[in-house]
Amino acid sequence: MAAPDDLLNSQFDGSHPLGKFLVSSGLPSMAWEASTRAHNSGKSFVLCEIQDVTFFAFSASEAVRDFLNVNSEFGEGNINTGNDLFRSLKINDGEPALVHQGLLHGFLNIIKSSDLVEKVEWSRRRKQSIVLTGHGLGGAMAALTTLWMLTNTITNTNKTRKNQNLPFCLTFGCPLLGDQWLAKIVRREKWCGQFCHVVSKHDFLPRVLLAPFQLTHYPLNALLPYLYSSTQAHHYHFPLSNDQACSFLRNVLNHTQIAANCCTDNNDLVISTQSPYKPLGCYFFCSEKGGSCFETNTAVLQMLYFTLQDVELCSSSCEIFIDHIEYGKTLVHTFRNLVSVGDLGRGFIDTENPYEVGIAVALEGAGVQIQNSAAQQVLMATGRIGFRPSLNSAKVHIQSAKIQGARVEIEWYKTSCEKEGLGYYDSFKTPNRTKDFRANIDRLKISRFWDEFIQMVEKNELPDDFHLFPKWVYAATYYRQLVEPLDIAYYYRSGKHQKQGHYLHGGRNQRYITLEKWRHDSNLCGERVSRTKLAVLTQDSCFWARLEEAKDWLERLKEEIDESVVAEMIKKIQGFVDHVEKLFKDRDVSYDVLLEEGSFVKWWREYRNIHRHVFPLNPMQMDLVEREMMKLCINRDATP
């Protein structure tokens, strides 16, 4: 196995696969040419072919008005506002992904007022390579169009998606687009490689949305029309005074530093009060000395700060802002002077650690001085933070293996109780044997593992959607169905229901609610197994808790004289019986439910005795349920 430093080094090495691709293909130069055509066309986008590649190039000037027309502090809003183009993008915890509303509105205007949809479909039928590109705000239009095109692949099978010719987005000086949830979706769907954002060293626009809109609104209103106007006017009549320009850059730099610090500090409270925007996809930082690729959010935010850190706020304001529009010149220097490890003098790198050398190469390529020890130290920490989820996932696998013995013990406990004629729920509810005590220890041991697992997921200490991998969804579901009945039994045997109410209303551990939600959030929720025999475990992990409530309702029904209360009790009991009927029909109950001395069969007998007198509805339902029960008892060998 490779050493951690070797693995970490791949994040910062100048030989990043995307960097190699950009250099060898010449794609950035072609994309810049297409972006220039879009800028000069006066249209929202142009379609052109360069060397057998189909380019959709978007204009920045057409998006300026929408970009500046926002109301919230940072301009963010729901990605589904005013459209259903991104409805396939689902967030696992139900939170909507956020995007800049001005940019979203600009994209929707292009969709509505142009033939973009028709031309995209036409290009896809031709099965040529499709590259979407744009400069500045045009890059944001290209990114949203790419995201929209990619959403159409979500419903396809993995095999079909693998063979599809996915679009590639290459932008220049593009602002940040969406929040952490949008970035997470892109990572989850393995789309990071479909987005590459080229960022020049001192370009302000990729950082500007990290600052509140109230601090940038006036300068942007003056700057953007100026920068996207005819290039001949760029050195004349600069729209901001030197003080205004310095104040604007200082605000952008300060808030970029805050965003970078928040990522490394992992302070959720601080982050929540700052800009919601996070990098999406891969970033290629370029300078006159070369270029470097970064693909983790934390590393990108760090580089957005460090590459702008040395800007001279009191220098010629015009020259600093012109950096945004001169990517054509920058690219020439970038690919002429690409940095490699051999280009760096050993006098500047006092180490033979390949990880530290890789960081030095990346910083040099992006235009950050090698002597900047703070940048090196932060990126080293960032790299290890980025690799930590993979290490944690390995630890989870190890810990999971360690609790298998406890799981097997509980399975044995369940089987042995059934052989004695009483289910493991009822046995655990009235413990008087050594094996009951051992089952409790095993219950706590397994539950501790899942508590730690959930905590790691909530702290983002595991890879994206690690908990939604089929292995863990199935394992969590099996744990819930096997162990939660013991938790329910413990709750009632301890008398907690007398103080806190029934289990489902005052006693269910958040752990089970979370694990159940994971199953609903996964793509496995709709799967069900067609059975002809009993299930190994009752599929409703809260079945026994529902039974305890039904027992209480039936007891109250015997003594209640208030007709309205009686009607309410009957309604609740009928709901439970309906649930039981469905479980039996689907063979979703385990053998322990049908044991003669078990809690359910005893309750059913009592319910049957008063059924015909109290329950006027569904008079044939009892016979139906009992026939199902008899079938299950006759063919009671448990199978999955």
Describe the structure.
Keywords: Cytoplasm, Nucleus, Plant defense. InterPro entries: AB_hydrolase_fold, EDS1_EP, Fungal_lipase-type. The chain is α/β, with parallel strands linked by helices and 640 residues long. It has 3 domains: 384 residues, no CATH class; 98 residues, no CATH class; 113 residues. It contains 29 helices and 11 strands. The protein has a 7-stranded mixed β-sheet with strand order 1-2-5-6-8-10-11, with helices on both faces. The protein has a two-stranded antiparallel ribbon with strand order 3-4. A two-stranded antiparallel ribbon has the order 7-9. A hairpin with a 2-residue loop joins β10 and β11. The longest helix is centred in the middle third of the chain and has 30 residues.
Keywords:
640 residues, alpha/beta, 7-stranded mixed beta sheet, two-stranded antiparallel sheet, 57% helix
Q: Total strand count, please?
A: 11
Low-confidence stretches: 1-15, 155-163, 266-272, 339-355
Helix content: 55-70%
User: How are strands sequenced across the largest beta sheet?
Assistant: 1-2-5-6-8-10-11
The gyration radius over C-alpha positions equals 31 Å
Strand content: 5-15%
Total of domains: 3
Structure class? alpha/beta
Shape: elongated
Q: Please report the number of helical segments.
A: 29
Biggest sheet overview: 7 strands, mixed
End-to-end distance: 38 Å
Mean pLDDT, as a whole number? 81
